[in-house]
Amino acid sequence: MNKDLPSIRTRLAHALVGWSLLWSVAVSMAVWLAVQNEVDELLDDTLEAAAEVLSGPLSIQAQAESPPAGHDAGSEQASSLPSGRFAWQVVRYPASGKAQVLIKSPAAPTSALRGSPSPAFGDASGWRVFGISLADGSQWLYVAQSHEERHEAQLEVAFGAALATLAIALIAHLWLRARVRHELLPLQRLAQHLCAHDPASTGATLGKAERQELQPVHAAIDALAERLARRLAQERAFTSHAAHALRTPLAGIDAQLAVALRECPPELQPRLQRVRTAAGRLQRVVAALLTLFRSGAELQRQPLDLTALISRLPLDALTIDVQAPQAVSADADLLAAALLNLFDNSLRNGATRVQVSTPTATTVRLDDNGPGVSPERRRELQSAIAAHAYEGSTGLGLVLADLVARAHGGVLLIPDVSGGFAIELRLGPCGE
Known about the structure:
Heat Shock Protein 90, five-stranded mixed β-sheet
């Protein structure tokens, strides 16, 4: 669990980044639409206000500078009144003929913004125009602003609003990350407690949860630990009884067979010897199983001399060649149980010699001179071991060896060899 917390934090951080970006884009779009609408209304209000302010003085000036009938519209004059950010025109519409621009601001176009009298707002040739009738009704004032300038104003406002939105989103994102990290601290501390928690200890509990919402988790873990403790106690009791109930009869059988071999006629001795060999193998299997599931709780890992360890194993009809220049770090009982069953596997499959080596301080390799297996069968065995799919795929020796390797934090591998059969017990780093 403790190893999973960084990935949980990473996934939450990525989710926060994604939602923050999505939220920022959504808010920015909403701000943009709102700002565009509000700026348009504000600029229109400004156009209307400017038209009302200019209507008075321009009406007087237009009358003073009104050209005579038949005057060419191309000779309109520019007014000295300020125009600021807007353009304006005073236009007269004769009863016949086209509209005449009487006066205009320097930025206004030379032709009339409207071909016919048009009050209120409208668009014309790249301009946003507001028209108002002057005092006598024959002349019209048009105040206009270019679309380009309006877009520029919208972009400036929207850019400022977007920056503010992104800043707020960034602050919110950092705050959310800090809150998530803070909220995950109780889980991290719970994971640390679980690493040190031994359910087999009498009365072992996790104690009170840091957060109320974690109390059901604590209760469930304590209940699970209690069930595991009961199961472990039952298994230890069974192992203790099984050790006495199985070893003693098997030892008696072997002793009786040894006596029978000495006293029986020569023609029966081969048959009795096969029975004694089978009984010896059964003793080794039982010893290995009891060793693997012994009552000890902790792995007793230590540097081991393989030559000395193997010399104590009960082996017949199999030559063991140990080439181990370095000690191997392992639990002596568990490694002996695994080796005993692997040697028995080699013997039953026709091997007469096994070479044992230690490529590293945590690896034990066995190479025998038996017939070996096909590449397809080797891949099938390796896949079954990797998936823990032992039933129907592997023998007891490989199962026990894999369990011993996993108990040491390692794996069991079946290397590809040109002849015979090879096994590698990789026992994992010494700290695991």
